[in-house]
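Feature request disguised as a bug: please show the residue count (448) next to DUF2213 domain-containing protein in the output. Example input:
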Amino acid sequence: MLFSDSLTLDAPRRTSDGYMAVRAKAARTGVYQYTGREVDPNNEHGLRDQAIVNVLRDEAAVFDERAVRSFIAKPITDDHPREAVNASNWRDHGRGIVMGAVRDGDHLAFDLVLMDAGTISKVEAGKAELSNGYAATLEFGDFAGPAGEKCQARQAAIVGNHVAIVDRGRAGPSCRIGDAAICDALPIALQDGAKEAAAWLKKAIALHEKHMNGSAPTTGKEGEKSQMLMMEQMKNALAELGGGDAKSGEAGMKMDVYPFHILEQEKPVKTMLIDGLTVDVSNADTAMATIKTLIAARDAAGAKVAGLETQVATIATDKATLEGKVKELTDAKPTPAQLRDAAKAYSAVVEKAKAHGVAVTDAMDEAQIMGATVAKHMGDAAKDWTADQIAASFAVLTKDAKPAAPGVQSLGAPIVIGDAEAAFADAQRKAREERRNAWKTPATSAAA
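Example output, currently without the count:
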């Protein structure tokens, strides 16, 4: 498995032969972070699906005598070759040689001699960053870093291959870890790209957090505008991370370099806590994967919000419909005056129908009563008439009908029936008086 280290140049000097002699100090020990897929692509150790795996490079590996000696006499190249440097291609790639190596605190410093005039001119013109490539194996287990960090793997058996002079390279331990002997060289503009990408990513994450805690809108026109702003920030970060002269798909050795004029010690790993996950934002692959995850989460949240908005709109429509029906029913409720008028109209229809000899029952409404009245007079001629025709015919037929007056109907002059007992007593009284006064009247029959 191949890794890469970053080196920095001290002030170069010229030899009497015109060669350039320079000391490069490499930051070598510490904890480096990789994705699980980089460390364990076949999931042989159960680490493939982990977002971050800590790999320890301790002093035992860095300052191992065999590892240090492996860099001695190795070639210096102008940019990274697309193949490992060996005897068959040294003439094509060699521009100088590593003369020695010494320990400098936690660093391993190299003494380099550049022998090619063209390469020396490039260094003097500003192409002064270095990247050394080496192969290494991984030991899996539980290890502790200098500050107590938990590490799942340890780097061991380091073997140097070459040191390249480059314009700029990708920061951090970016060489892909694999079983192949060579990894891809993917230099990018560290100073411009990575810093700008980190800045855009921080803005996008900050806005995402506002969306999650409700301090920034997520719905309506303002929410759409805010979501689009976050997407634009993520796209800008991806664009910065994808910049430079990187070419994928070709074999080569992938290296990392730091600007010699700004670094004198190991570049620290830049991490950021995103949704509870510690992410190495200096690692382009990890940063891009994180951005894509955030975009996917944003899209899922947007779809959920759209669904909820549709539900809210449906509920609002149903509410408006229900309120309309309630108003319609309320408006249709008859007033007391309307009820009195309806009762009078119904009573008038009933009386007119009865005046025409129609038997009216309590189960009949006005339309049925009028229909029965018209049918009695018109017969089958009215069987297909409409309600309006029946009502008009009823009005004509009953216009002269006079409903019976309410109350007791007149039965003729009343017959006065006297008291029989009083009459009998009166008759007896008259008879007694006639007998008592009879002697006073002359008997006319005898005189005759």
